[in-house]
Amino acid sequence: MLIFTLACKKTPGVPVGTPVWRYQAGAEVMSTGAVANDGTVYVGSDNHYLHAINPDGSLKWRYQTEDAIRSSPATASDGTVYIGSYDGCLYAINPDGSLKWRYQTGAGIHSSPAVAADGTVCVGSRDSCLYAINPDGTLKWRYQTSAGIHSSPAITTDGTVCVGSRDSCLYAINPDGTLKWRYRTGGDIFSSPAVGSTGTIYVGATDYFFYAVNPDGSHKWRYQTGNWVYSSAAIGADGTVYFGSYDCGLYAFSSDGKYMWHYETEDWVYSSPAVTSDGTIYVGSRDHYIYAINPDGSLKWRCRTGYWVFSSPAIAADGTVYVGSYDSYLYAISADSPLADSPWPEFRHDNQNTGRAGEP
């Protein structure tokens, strides 16, 4: 693996927004990184590998699956790393890079796993099923929808598992695998749910709408953008909801559905935003840039990569922004604020990508 050291975040005078290093993954990086407590960054790539990268950008280890990895890894409290692959398997990898177990579903996995408080791992498959897997790799339950699941599940504070399907429905599944409710949109749901402080669930769809759904499955509000909404929402400390759209915009709404602003990039926003403690919003765009946007919707800075940015930013405890690009690199970018203390500050909720509301 090639490591390019571009600038050091801790060097005086280095401006915020400068890459500290970039790691060559060998293929496109659409996966979003998970940052473990020891600073290790885990990320998948299209050449079938899960990479474990040290905080200085050097390779710790990598594990090869049998197909592309666009799922984002999640880490459990015991250090186990969970990742889905297009080979149809959910993998559990030990912290040393060895295989713990793998569970075979009926089709490729684009969905990113969520880890419940009791260690249950939930993930969707393109075979149309949502799976709940015990920590030992055995099946706990599965719930079948009517179409493939690309969306990544979110687990609410009461253990309900929420996930979108390409059958146009947002599902809420009880912890025992039974249906709690489903909410029908007008398009496929590739977006992953985010959960607000009052239990409101936010998700986008290919009908151009972004939806807010009450905890009981009833409609709260929706907003029509100019194109598909693949991006998943992030929520700021003040309750502001941020999401991107294929119409090139990053949007900001109050929790009650009041439009606040949107920032225009130069191409699709597939990436999901992340919000830091100083209110800065980070997001990637197909225009090759990673953007830092001020809380009022103005541009703070942007950093150019070599190609599309579909990956979502992950923010480390020291404020470093990790994000992948279609140019095959994972970038570590100098910044100065950790994640916001908010209900859902980034894609998959927290640095460990647990996908679980409340404490990770």
Annotation keywords:
single chain; 360 residues; mainly beta; 5-stranded antiparallel sheet; 4-stranded antiparallel sheet
Low-confidence stretches: 1-14
The gross shape turns out to be globular
Q: What percent strand?
A: 35-45%
Q: What's the rounded overall pLDDT mean?
A: 95
| CATH homologous superfamily descriptor | YVTN repeat-like/Quinoprotein amine dehydrogenase
Shape-level CATH architecture: 7 Propeller
Number of beta strands: 33
Distance between termini? 31 Å
Kindly report the CATH topology: Methylamine Dehydrogenase, Chain H
Q: Order of strands in the sheet with the most strands?
A: 1-2-33-32-31
Structural class: mainly beta
Number of structurally distinct domains? 1
Radius of gyration: 18 Å
Q: How many DSSP H or I helices?
A: 0
CATH class: Mainly Beta
What's the story with the biggest beta sheet?
A: 5 strands, antiparallel
Helix percent reads: under 10%
How would you sum up this structure in a few lines?
By secondary structure, the protein is mostly beta strands. It has strands spanning 3-5, 19-24, 34-35, 41-44, 49-53, 59-64, 74-75, 81-84, 89-93, 99-104, 114-115, 121-124, 129-133, 139-144, 154-155, 161-164, 169-173, 179-184, 194-195, 201-204, 209-213, 219-224, 234-235, 241-244, 249-253, 259-264, 274-275, 281-284, 289-293, 299-304, 314-315, 321-324, 329-333.
Structure commentary:
The chain is mainly β and 360 residues long. It has one domain: YVTN repeat-like/Quinoprotein amine dehydrogenase (Methylamine Dehydrogenase, Chain H, 7 Propeller). 0% of the residues lie in helices and 39% in strands. It has no helices and 33 strands. It has strands at residues 3-5, 19-24, 34-35, 41-44, 49-53, 59-64, 74-75, 81-84, 89-93, 99-104, 114-115, 121-124, 129-133, 139-144, 154-155, 161-164, 169-173, 179-184, 194-195, 201-204, 209-213, 219-224, 234-235, 241-244, 249-253, 259-264, 274-275, 281-284, 289-293, 299-304, 314-315, 321-324, 329-333. It has a five-stranded antiparallel beta sheet with strand order 1-2-33-32-31, with no helix packed on it. A hairpin with a 5-residue loop joins strand 29 and strand 30. The chain is globular and about 50 Å long. Mean pLDDT is 95; it is low at 1-14.
